[in-house]
């Protein structure tokens, strides 16, 4: 009887210890997702601080690792959009850190898309900081393609169909002869058919318009102008990009056609 009582006592003790830990971990996840709902530089810096503190005691947490990668990516992206001082250095540093956490997440849960997706978009941020050419020289072209394709195969709708849009962008921005405009357009057209085009992600119509302008032809330019005119955003960064593209179209329209 004494042994049974002791076993029961230790069972209760373990239960009382683990339940608060589980509740605490769940609270952290809820807080991180709440901070993500309001995308600000301050919120993502706070998310990074929370993640890194929690990861010191639970380094093999899949949920914390991919959320930390998300926070690093968005911090870099928003720093770029805001034109912060030394934003390129920020993108290089934060993109690299985000890649590391995303890589860990994909190793922890290789069947889920989270780690692969956040790895790919963090490479994008890193490339903004150091240049695409340098990123390619570091072997990141193949890794980025592989990671986005894994997300595409696992769950096309993940993160607002982000893998479809990202693959379109990937093949559009690579320097010649690595780029593939036809393949880029294929992915963009697929993304255009999703519910996220121009709504959840403003970049969709802008990226497609850039490609259409680059590919040329009167029909492509007409479509690009229509797409850009339909974008709804109050974000200065995107409004400036739209105005630059419209100005480019106007300039091309004024240029004399060669005979």
Characterization of this structure:
With 259 residues, the chain is mostly helical. Helices cover 80% and strands 0% of the residues.
Descriptive keywords:
mainly alpha
* Largest sheet properties: none
Which term fits the overall shape?
Answer: globular
Note the run of SSEs as H and E. Answer: HHHHHHHHHHHH
Straight-line distance between termini: 102 Å
Low-confidence stretches: 8-13, 15-23
Secondary structure: number of strands: 0
- Tally the helices: what do you get? 12
Q: Assembly type of the shown chains?
A: single chain
**Radius of gyration in whole Å, from Cα?**
22 Å
Helix content: over 70%
User: Mean pLDDT score, rounded?
Assistant: 90
Strand content: under 5%
- Structural class call reads mainly alpha
Write the layout of secondary structure elements.
Elements: H1 2-37, H2 41-57, H3 62-82, H4 87-108, H5 114-130, H6 132-137, H7 140-154, H8 158-173, H9 181-192, H10 203-215, H11 218-229, H12 236-254
Helix pairs in contact: 1-2, 1-3, 2-3, 3-4, 3-5, 4-5, 5-7, 5-8, 7-8, 8-9, 8-10, 9-10, 10-11, 10-12, 11-12
Compose a concise summary of this entry:
The chain is mainly α and 259 residues long. Helix content is 80%, strand content 0%.
């Amino acid at each position: 009887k004494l042994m049974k009582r002791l076993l029961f006592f230790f069972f209760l003790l373990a239960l009382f210890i683990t339940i608060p830990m589980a509740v605490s971990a769940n609270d952290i996840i809820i807080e991180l997702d709440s901070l993500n709902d309001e995308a600000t530089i301050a919120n993502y810096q706070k998310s990074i601080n929370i993640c890194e503190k929690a990861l010191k005691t639970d380094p093999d947490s899949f949920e914390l690792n991919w959320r930390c990668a998300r926070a690093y990516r968005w911090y870099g992206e928003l720093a770029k959009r805001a034109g912060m001082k030394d934003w390129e250095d920020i993108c290089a540093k934060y993109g690299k850190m985000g890649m590391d956490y995303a890589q860990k997440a994909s190793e922890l849960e290789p069947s889920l898309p989270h780690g692969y997706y956040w790895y790919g978009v963090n490479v994008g941020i890193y490339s903004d900081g150091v240049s695409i050419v340098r990123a390619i020289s570091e072997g990141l072209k193949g890794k980025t393609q592989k990671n986005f394709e894994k997300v595409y195969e696992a769950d096309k709708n993940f993160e607002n169909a982000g893998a479809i849009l990202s693959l379109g962008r990937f093949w559009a921005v690579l320097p010649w002869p690595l780029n593939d405009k036809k393949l880029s357009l294929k992915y963009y057209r697929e993304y255009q058919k999703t519910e996220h085009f121009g709504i959840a992600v403003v970049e969709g119509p802008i990226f497609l318009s850039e490609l259409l302008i680059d590919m040329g032809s009167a029909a492509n330019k007409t479509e690009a102008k229509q797409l850009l005119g339909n974008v709804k955003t109050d974000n200065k960064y995107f409004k400036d990009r739209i105005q630059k593209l419209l100005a480019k179209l106007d300039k091309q329209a004024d240029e004399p056609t060669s005979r």
